[in-house]
Amino acid sequence: MGRVDIAYFYNLPRAELLRHIQQMLAVLTDEQIETCFAKETKKLGKPSSRSLMDWSTIPLRHIAIQVCYDGTEYAGLAQQPNREYTIEELLLNALRGAALIPQHAEASDVHFERSGRTDRGVSAAGQVFSFYVRTNNKGMGPQPIPAPDPRFYRDRRDGLTPPAKPSDSATDDRGADGDLVNAEKEPELKQVPQEQEIDYVSAINMRLPETIRVLGWAPVDENFSARHSTSSRRYVYMFGEVGSLNIRRMAEACTKLVGFHDFRNICKPSLDSIKTFERVIFSCFLEIDGQPYDCENDRMAMKENSTLSLVVCGSAFLYHQIRCIASLLLHIGAELEPPSLISDLLNVEQFPGKPDYPIAPGELLLFERAEYTSTRLPKFYLSGPSYRFLTKNIRFLQSKALARARVYGVALSLLSEARTCQSVSSGGPPRACDHPLVGITMTHKITDLCEVYIEGGLSLFKLEKYRRITNRPFDGTLEHRLRERQKELAMYKENKKHGEQ
């Protein structure tokens, strides 16, 4: 039998490859098979001590970590089958590399959870993860990972348990320190000397890219869930310079978002997992240069390069909800839409389906922090060396970001100088966008503005008269789309069943 080219097997389907392996094993003797395995073992070398760890004898503990990351370089936060360069995938690889979890452990094996999901390009300053890891505390002893208490495992984001509607008499049930006044008090955790524990912060950070940093860790009880124990989540959307946006109209629209509403028209509905679109927003307001905007302030008192941002705090959010809110506020601030647009879209009887409008870019969205009651999540801890290293490292990253911002600032200044030197006979300078996200030109009147689509921070124009969002068509009601989706899934399952038979 002639020698077979090994490249032949690379392109074979899995079933065909297994058939070839079975045929070869059938003609080989036991001695030949043992010789082949001995050669491969010699090539690989001795197994590492980490791969030989008996995890049934190793004590584990439940911890939470606080993480910041620049999401512009990654394919989103959540671990996905077809995307390897995600935040969660890198964190899990770092945990495996530090031998804090078994080498082949998946996220579900160690109860790996996050406080909030962020999309591609979205960054976070205070993201929280919880999971089980190896510990040096021998007093805990080896124990199986327990199932989480269902009392604290309410799937509020996916709508399995709708959020409670706040009453008129008590709009906020949190005390001055942020704890829930009527919340069930959890038993205090048994404290152990932190100096004797593994330096989780350093062990994980040394195996992560510099744009992902663990800021601290905290011991939590077995019923704690980074996702479902969260009392509130806080997002910030950076609009950039104020420009000629009507801030007063935007602030008026923000007040209409606060409270308990059905946000099916202000999100991207997920027909496969979402059961309800009712959510609670605790606060929604604008900030100028980091300070809350006051409607009494005179607009002329703002600096020429003042920056505008949107701050939204709520119990849980729907897919693309913040980016849809930012897009609507941009339309309102550009005086393309009235502030009453928010009330109209929240009225699901008047608008049973979502009209067609663009969402704001994800690169300008920041998941700032997740809030927990002090009884559920103690303060985060990190060692002295980790604190000194992170302080220097994050300040350096901040300096790099400021340097990049300076580059674009100087480029805009040079562009302005070049534009003023351009001769009028050549047709004049190109029309400048009044705001980079909205793309309203100063040479147009409000009634003659063209329609704007926001894609990746760029403004694309259709040369036609602007059409109000409430006058645009929608692709059927949500209930109709859900019924059609259920029919598609039923047909898919039926076809798959017949195919297997």
UniProtKB/TrEMBL annotation:
**Transmembrane spans:** none
**GO terms for biological process, alphabetical:** mRNA pseudouridine synthesis; tRNA pseudouridine synthesis
| UniProt entry keywords in alphabetical sequence | Isomerase, tRNA processing
List, as start-end ranges, the regions of compositional bias called Basic and acidic residues.
171-189
GO cellular component terms, A-Z: cytoplasm; nucleus
Domain (Pseudouridine synthase I TruA alpha/beta) ranges: 253-372
Among InterPro entries, the record links this protein to:
PsdUridine_synth_cat_dom_sf (IPR020103), PsdUridine_synth_TruA (IPR001406), PsdUridine_synth_TruA_a/b_dom (IPR020097), PsdUridine_synth_TruA_C (IPR020095), TruA/RsuA/RluB/E/F_N (IPR020094)
The keyword tRNA processing appears for this protein = yes
Instruction: Spell out the Gene3D superfamilies in the cross-references.
Output: Pseudouridine synthase I, catalytic domain, C-terminal subdomain, Pseudouridine synthase I, catalytic domain, N-terminal subdomain
- GO terms of molecular function: pseudouridine synthase activity; RNA binding
- Keyword flag Isomerase: yes
Residues of the region (Disordered) are 135-189
User: According to its UniProt record, which protein family does this protein belong to?
Assistant: Belongs to the tRNA pseudouridine synthase TruA family.
Name of protein: tRNA pseudouridine38/39 synthase
